[in-house]
Amino acid sequence: MQVLFAKIVFVCASLLWCSDVAAANAVENTAAALLRNVCRQLKLCANAQPVSFQLFGMPAAFTVIHQQASPEQFMRRLHGRSSPFSRFTRVGNQVFYSGLHGQMTLQLVVDGLNAKSTHALLSAMQVPAGTGPATDSIRLLGRRLLRLLPEGARLLMDICYANRERTCHQVYAYARLSTEQLASALKATLIAANWTAQSTAAGLATWVRDGRTLQYFLASVNGHTALYLTAPAVLW
Fold this sequence. Notes:
This protein is of the alpha+beta class. It has 5 helices and 12 strands. A 12-stranded antiparallel sheet has the order 3-4-5-6-2-1-7-8-12-11-10-9. The longest helix has 29 residues, at about 15-40.
């Protein structure tokens, strides 16, 4: 289920950026630790290995749960124990449990498609301090736009994994540019910023600069142009 997060990726440069990364890592580790504690409390996900990441700049973590029990048995055991989840709802074949733990939001998504085994995703994400109306979300998303991109982008997805190189992935939508127009604009922008084109294989364009790699591909979706981008987080 990690693919659910990776489908769809991120931060600044310099000493200030490095200090921000150190702080973010600390919170990401807190999110992962919270998931381990919840797993121990519920006794539903032994040997959990949480993955730390950032979602739209907010530190978070998730872990995948596999059990040789039906979703009904899994949820019956969950309801029979004290848990941090205060709300749940069903959407199609998935059941969503959610709750708060301090400054962290918790969510458990149980997949009900398989009648003999359970697949679930348990995640935790930091709640921004002083979160208010939708203006906070707009302000947050605006900070995550990559300056290298042509104007007119709308950010749809933003995930940054805390791996060794802090690889980030983002998805953008352009309403007024065709794939050909956006490809031409991207090429001009990257060349002006001293990036060098390496290859284009199966639609995936690869560019390099100073030992760093940036990759992207374009697709036409419902009359808009979608841009999927992956690059080191230092570029943000």
